[in-house]
Amino acid sequence: MNSIERINAAVSFETPDRVPVIAQIFGHAAVLTGVALGEYVRDGELLARCQIKALEHYGYDAVFAVMDVNVETEAVGSALEYRVDNYPFVKSYALSEITDLDSLSVPDPYDAGRMPELLKAVTILRREVGDEVLVVGCVLGPITLATQLLGIKKALYLAIDKPESFDRLLDFSTDVIIRFGTAQIEAGAHLPIVFDPSASPAVIPHQFFREFELTRLTRVFASFKKAGAKANWLHIAGPTDPILPYYPQAGVDIANIDYNADPLAAQQVLPKTCIDGNIKPLSFVEATPEEIASESARLLNLFADRGGYILSSGCEIPPESKPESIAAMVSATR
Amino acid sequence: MSELTINRLLEALLEGNQSLAVVESRKLLENDVKPERIVTEGIESAMTQLDAKCTVEQFNLLEIMLVGRAVMEVMKVLYPTDGSPPDTKGIVVTGALEGDVHDLGKNILRIVLTAKGYRVVDCGTDCPVEKLIDTAAQEAALTIGVSGLITTVIPQVRQVTAILSERGLGHIKVMAGGAALKQATAESLNVDFVAQTAFDGVHYIDQILEVK
Ligand code: B12
User: Is the interface score ipTM higher than 0.90?
Assistant: First the structure.
């Protein structure tokens, strides 16, 4: 089996030749290749080259065209500050007040900010790996994009004080996400992963997830499937136990769980959904390769009977991680 | 009379109802209730009740944000010049270090400290260690509170205490908190205290003052 067939088997609960393994390597690919992170997130060609090098080095099942959490907000109008050895961040938000929402328009992915560079990365990666390895693009989820357009504090107060305005902001965010994600699929991504850290129960009550997020995620995932996505992959960090039951309804095929979610509880509420996770990201910096190997073995064992599993970390593998530890996770599936 | 309305203020605060809380605190002032009494019996007791409800497992961020916002609005009514009482229990300088933009937790710390009678000088996010320390020196701070959500700031956190003592500011206590730092011990971060929650941090400072 090649990587795509293997992942397909896991998603449809058939038996793969081995459990697929996906290392969530974004900025680490730059560090591994000796490229400055600040360059990596601005140059699609460089990003693709580093991803291919990392793939050759580790031999896992997916590559990522992921820059950082600011691509969409920058394309809409936020100003970023770039750093040499770090991810960029927002200096001023596209919206200083929610009343400015009407002046914003959905950005053209072929023209706005770094979106074209990300599309370029997707195209190069697909050309390089074809249908052997999964090419993953990336969009934010509606709540996270809303918090990235207005600032998280203002956005959360808005959700309480003027839910109708927050709804409109979420609808706008959803339109941005669908347009960008669809362009990624057209450019060659097998699927765009949906990152939604601010929809985590660490930030919002799970009732907010149900009331504000669920219908929009459903719309996003339905559009991606229609555009040809191989599967729908949702990534929310933190203690997600209370929101996992909503995932199937939203159209999620692969559910990422972080280190502070419980894999057994996740199996129970997601009997037919493929799960990926959940090695503690920090342990790739701090623990020994032997510890990563035994944690991987423990997880593989937990999912052995059930299937529907991709071995992975709970969230991004930090850029400064030890390569031997990442290699230890990959070898655990062999 | 004031007894009754302080209770109403307390309820409005706990409900996170900022406009009602503002109305109730204006009424109290009009009835010659002293701002200090409104702080201790209204605001501080609201914070104590919230504190009791918020454990590490049971933490409703939005509830705290709402109560916090109401508290800050009432403080502005009580102390129109800068929203904090003229004589504070002490000054706390807060910040997130270079490369870290997360600030929700740090904002909560600011609110809780302000409500408990401390003055907070916030250096914001992505703040160089030197700036944090300069500010603490200028303000004659009691404590520095470092908030860290990403692990890459840990080497910077480890420097704070050393730089303070080099500069003869060793009496300023350093506490750390936030999702990344709270996984570490005080020894490994080279700080005086690691807080699991914002309330934890306030208890620590209260305790420093008691010892003094
Ligand atoms: C919301 C969020 C964001 C928002 C931040 C918005 C904002 N303005 O704050 C956005 C989307 C912008 C964001 C961006 C990123 N994030 Co982020 N984010 C989160 C998330 C989901 C929640 C954090 C949060 O606000 N929690 C709620 C607050 C209230 O909790 P708290 O900070 O712990 O505070 C409490 C206590 O700790 C205490 N406290 C806090 N500070 C202090 C200080 C003192 C002195 C005291 C006494 C107490 C105290 O008070 C609070 C109440 O008790 C976490 C995941 C998680 N579940 O934790 C990831 C997380 C923190 N992010 C992470 C990452 C990696 C990133 C990015 C780098 C992603 C990327 N690849 O681009 C970027 C860039 C970040 C940067 N350069 O700083 C990682 C960090 C991992 C690591 N390596 O250390 C996390 C843990 C997710 C993960 N599992 O990987 N993120």
Answer: no
Pocket test for ligand 1, best of A80, A152, A203, A208 (most atoms within 8 A of CB): A203
B99: left (phi over 0), alpha (psi -120 to 50) or beta: left
What is the distance in A from the centroid of ligand 1 to the CA of A103? 30
Is the peptide bond between A8 and the residue preceding it cis, with omega within 30 degrees of 0?
Answer: no
Average pLDDT of every residue of chain A:
96
Chain B positions in Cβ-Cβ contact with residue A319 (cut-off 8 Å): 152
Q: What is the pTM of this model?
A: 0.91
Token readout for A200 is 């985590």
Q: What domains can be seen in chain A, in order of their start residue?
A: 3-332 (3.20.20.210)
Q: What is the mean pLDDT of residues A65-88?
A: 96
User: Atom 68 (ligand 1): residue with closest C-alpha?
Assistant: A87
What is the Cα–Cα distance from A43 to A35, expressed in whole angstroms? 11
What band does B81 get if pLDDT is binned at 50, 70 and 90?
confident
Specify whether domain B91-211 bears CATH 3.30.750.24: no
Task: Report the C-alpha gap between B178 and A318 in whole angstroms.
Answer: 17
3-state helix, strand, coil in chain A (%, to 5): 50, 15, 35
CB contact under 8 A, B99 and A90: no
SS3 state of residue A81: strand
What CA–CA distance (Å, rounded) separates B202 from B177?
12
Q: Which of B98, B14, B56, B181 is nearest to A86 (CA)?
A: B98
CATH of B2-78 among 1.25.40, 3.30.70, 1.10.1240, 3.30.230: 1.10.1240
Neighbours of A273 (CB within 10 A): 20
Q: How far apart are CA A97 and CA A44, in angstroms?
A: 32
What are the tokens at A168?
């409109």
Instruction: Give Cα A70 distance to the centre of its chain.
Output: 13
CB contact at 8 A, A204 and A240:
no
What CA–CA distance (Å, rounded) separates A36 from A57?
19
Q: Distances from the Cα of A291 to the Cαs of A277, A288, A326, in angstroms? A: 16, 5, 11
